[in-house]
Amino acid sequence: MDNRIRKYSKALCCIAILVSLIALAFLTSCGAKDKNEVRVYSYGDYVDPQVVKDFQKETGIEVILDTYDTNEEMYPVIKNRAGVYDVICPDAYMVQQMSEEGLLSEIDKSKLPNYKNIGKRYLDMAENYDPGNKYAVPYQWGYTVIMYDKARVPEGSVDSWNDLWDKKYQGKIVMMNSMRDTFAIALKADGNSINTLSEAELKKACDRLIAQKPLVYRYANDSARDSLIGGAAEIGTVWNGEIIYSTGLNKKLSYVIPKEGTEVFVDNWCIPKNAFHKSNAEKWIDYMCRPDVAYKNYEYLGYSTPNEGARALMSKPERNDPALFASDEVLKKSETLKALDRKGKRLYGDYWKIFRSAD
């Protein structure tokens, strides 16, 4: 068989495979559209399992719940339609990016009677990444804090991100292990925006992080709390949702929101543009906005809730706990992450590589 025949045969084979895959996808999609279900794509263990069961029982809608670890893992799945989901749970900057790229559907508030429970304070925060509150419904929110062992770190002695560069904590510091979150700490320590596009400021932050490396016990995200609870570390960065859980297991732990301000995150319910079951997605989001449901999720997760109805169900100490609800003064000095343009992605990516590869 000459080369032309081989190429022709190979081409026919590829076309046949492609047609088969398209047909399979079409059949699968049609089947999925006909089912009374809602396909939810969210962070792992981010909804009380009992809430899922209750939703299914009350509505008769089957919940297909898949999970991811990061926004960056979720994004290409929705972008490339590798999986068809009805509801997703992106952070602030990813809402901005996906809405600008036309990947999200506008939220029909008339279908969400419980939307009224989301506090104005949090809708105003969401305006920073979702102007007009068109595409996102705030679900959980929080911020980065410094947690420390007050038996070894005197209370009142820590009040700044710069304290994480103190040599007396050598080998006892836990730092975030995520490009934007880790850079945010160094940028805030220098008094710069966590969304800066200044190469000079990013280089300075990178140099700072490299200089800090010999002092760091480990870099971790969700598991950072374990090093502090167990005493392997004396001081470190965690999300505020870890405070109640951690201090419940280790009474020696305390925390501080640094004076420079901090990174605030807001996770949101959104409906992808290609959702098969938009009506069921709206029912899911509305259910999550119900005060008693939002309160169950708060109890399960320990993170701050933007749901004022759920907050009303809390005890007075909980409602006024700065570990859960930072003051307006703190929030004025704080920022949510914004989506990066092409230049920004290159800058942060390049300096992250430099930091990660440094000895």
Describe this structure in words.
The protein is an alpha/beta fold. Helices cover 45% and strands 15% of the residues. The protein has 15 helices and ten strands. The chain has helices spanning 3-34, 49-59, 71-79, 92-100, 120-126, 179-189, 199-212, 224-229, 241-249, 278-288, 291-301, 308-312, 316-319, 328-332, 342-357; strands spanning 37-43, 62-68, 87-88, 137-149, 173-175, 216-219, 235-239, 253-256, 263-269, 335-336. Strands 4, 5, 6, 7, 8, 9 and 10 form a seven-stranded mixed β-sheet that branches. A three-stranded parallel β-sheet has the order 2-1-3. Helix 2 (49-59) links the parallel strand 1 (37-43) and strand 2. Helix 6 (179-189) packs across helix 7 (199-212) and helix 7 (199-212) runs parallel beside helix 15. The longest helix is centred in the N-terminal third of the chain and has 32 residues, at 3-34. The chain starts with a helix and ends with a helix. The model is unreliable at 1-31 (pLDDT under 50).
